[in-house]
Amino acid sequence: MDSKLVDDIVAQLAPGLRAGLGITAYFERSHEAPAREALIELVREARAEQAGAFRWKADPKRGTFHPIDYRRIADPELRLARLTGDVAEWQRLAAGDDAMEASLPTLIVATRAQWEQAKGMLGELHYEFPASEDGAERLERWMRRIVAVLPVVHAHAGWRLALPVRTDAARTRGAQVLAVARALPGLDLDGPTIAHHLLRDRIKGPAWLLFLRDELVQAAGGLEAMRARAGGEVEIERLGGGQLLRAGPAPEPGADGVAPRALVAMARAVDPIRLRDHPQLYDAAPGSFNHDETVAWLERFAARA
């Protein structure tokens, strides 16, 4: 689907939100020196790619996606390098000044020490940018780069809905997000409302590109079982310490509530490791993204498989 058409659909259903392309990686040992050094280099590469479009924002007080006050950091790379790893801490690069609105491009880095040990929560890297003609190539390049330099457990890339970083702002957009999710089932939803501790050994579902480390491949029944369930619709190749799955030649958002065929096939391939339940993603007001709608969204591909 043409990106302009996607933009028009999102603008009509959810004014103030934006669709774009993005990659999310979950990785271990985020607080250790090798991961920190790799993250600093990835931040530099993203800043160079976006030609200075980022502004740096950080939440100096809280280790969650629930900042109230942002403090501008003059040297984000130095700030990231100085993180102690004693507590979870979010760092955010964004194109906009208002945390209440969605903005592209956005880069979010989460490093964790105590939470990884106590709750099994993984470090995270989220990179989102506007769709473009070379978007598919950029997503795959970033996927390969991230897997090469970080101890990634799983990662996914494709179309997504860019959400405000403020939890309260995101939660109050539930009805709008639900409308977009129903219209464009190939759009991923990520950000402040996801219970990330549930994603240590589970994934939310399929994506255009999906990386699974070997233990997750085995949990899904093994490589041959995944190939058989996909029925030839999904390309699978060896990458680093796992497998890279690709659903078609380019990411597709779906249209008119119809899920892309290749994503349905990938849902079959990874069915044993899909997350099947989750607390409500957004506010539970009537007609909004309550718990039932959250489960329905998680199952949107399986229902068609």
Topology of helices and strands:
Blueprint: H1 3-13, E1 18-27, H2 33-49, E2 55-58, H3 76-81, E3 89-94, E4 106-111, H4 114-119, E5 123-129, H5 135-149, E6 152-162, H6 167-171, H7 174-183, E7 188-189, E8 209-213, H8 214-219, H9 223-230, E9 235-239, E10 242-246, H10 261-269, H11 291-298
Parallel strand pairs: 6-7
Antiparallel strand pairs: 1-5, 1-6, 2-3, 3-4, 4-5, 6-8, 8-10, 9-10
Structure explained in plain terms:
With 305 residues, this protein is of the alpha+beta class. The protein has one domain (3-304). The chain contains eleven helices and ten strands. A hairpin with a 2-residue loop joins strand 9 (235-239) and strand 10 (242-246).
Tell me the distance between the termini: 22 Å
pLDDT below 50 for ≥5 consecutive residues: which ranges?
56-92, 95-100
Helix content: 25-40%
- Our estimate of the beta-strand percent is 15-25%
Element pattern in H and E: HEHEHEEHEHEHHEEHHEEHH
Summarize the main sheet. 10 strands, mixed
How many β-strand runs? 10
Structural class assignment: alpha+beta
Radius of gyration: 18 Å
Mean pLDDT, rounded to whole units?
78
> How many DSSP H or I helices?
11
